[in-house]
Amino acid sequence: MNTELWDEKRLISLLKQGNDAAFRVLVRQYNNRLFGIAYGIVLDREESLEILQEVFLKVFQNIHRFREEAGLSTWLHRITVNQCLNWHRRWKRKFRWQQNTLERDGPIDYPDRGMDNDPEAIYREKELKNKFMENLGQLPREERVVFVLKEVEGLSYDEIARVLKIKRGTVSSRLFYARQRLKESLTRYMD
Amino acid sequence: MKKTSHQCNTDLLNRFFDHELDPDEQARFSRHVKECPSCQEALKDNQSISDLFKACVDEKIFRADLDNLEEGVLDLIGQKKYSLWLRLKDLFRPRKFLIPAAAIITMLVLSFSIIRQHGPIPGPSAIINSFEGNGSYVMLLETPKSHQTVIWFNETF
């Protein structure tokens, strides 16, 4: 199926009619990108997949309310971020008694993909990635969301401001602090 | 014209990195960066963080079962659609006779309201008296509102 053939207006119109093929196109067009956002926020693969499923279901249930004032991708980003934050709230309520959040419970296992045959280099790379994701999980959530939208989707400050309904200046400062904190926490590894 | 020096402004540096400065400022800052090792270093760090994050997410996407997700989503949507259709059917099934009944009631109400609007054709309020002879018939009537007396005469030859 050539997903490029479906322009956004036509896709939205077909989605509103409940067309199955249109939903398939939507999922194919956006699943990687939305998964990246969800994973960047919740830092858990299985949860990200569940969130993504909820996102697409929400799209199906609410597409008739989508008034096309913003682009489809802005709307999808907003739903994804909200689902992630709701998931975070749900999780916090459920396990309030636990001090450690999910993102801190243990190192993340990354596959070896033959980037380097030097075992020491592979180990260093893995350690750096684990440390990075750990530190990302420790960022304030507001900063992490802005950082993720910038890095995964390459959105401009204005686009991020629209998705999160915050000011452009707030986007700039959150991004600045997120990078600053990540740099500081990784100084030892990045030198 | 000499422009002001940017003096390694970290906020500007971030906006420069994100291409969020206006074109003039972007060009000016670019010239500053070429001569400033600490800004070059900071930009390199920003790029490393960005690359590292993208590499982590790409690996997760690579390992995530997104094909299954597609099928799962479509299944769920199918179920939702089916249940919506069933709910609609259930809504109308016990009301099989309700629609014709409602139509009949509506028609009756409408016809009564039309009759009430026009009202009955006013006739005489009362026959005061009547006389019948061999070849004629006389009746004295009174109109309902104006109470006028009408004499009605009929010859029967």
Measured by DSSP, the beta-strand proportion of chain B falls in 5-15%
The quaternary state of the protein chains shown equals heterodimer
Q: How many DSSP-defined strands of chain A? A: 0
Percentage of residues in helical conformation of chain A = over 70%
Radius of gyration of chain A: 18 Å
List the topology elements.
The complex is a heterodimer of chains A (191) and B (157).
Chain A: H1 8-16, H2 20-42, H3 45-62, H4 72-94, H5 119-138, H6 141-153, H7 157-164, H8 168-190
Chain B: H1 10-17, H2 23-35, H3 37-63, H4 66-92, H5 98-118, E1 126-132, E2 136-142, E3 149-155
Antiparallel strand pairs in B: 1-2, 2-3
Helix pairs in contact in B: 1-3, 2-3
Question: Short summary of the structure?
Answer:
The complex is a heterodimer of chains A (191) and B (157). Chain A has 191 residues and is mainly alpha-helical. Chain A has helices at residues 8-16, 20-42, 45-62, 72-94, 119-138, 141-153, 157-164, 168-190.
Characterise this structure.
- The complex is a heterodimer of chains A (191) and B (157).
- Chain A has 191 residues and is mainly alpha-helical.
- Chain A has helices at 8-16, 20-42, 45-62, 72-94, 119-138, 141-153, 157-164, 168-190.
- In chain A, helix 2 (20-42) packs across helix 3 (45-62), helix 2 (20-42) crosses helix 4 (72-94) and helix 4 crosses helix 7.
- Chain A is globular.
- Mean pLDDT of chain A is 81; it is low at 96-114.
- Chain B folds into 3 domains: 10-64; 68-115; 122-157, no CATH class.
- In chain B, helix 1 (10-17) packs across helix 3 and helix 2 crosses helix 3.
- The longest helix of chain B has 27 residues, at 37-63.
- The chains are: A mainly alpha (191), B alpha+beta (157).
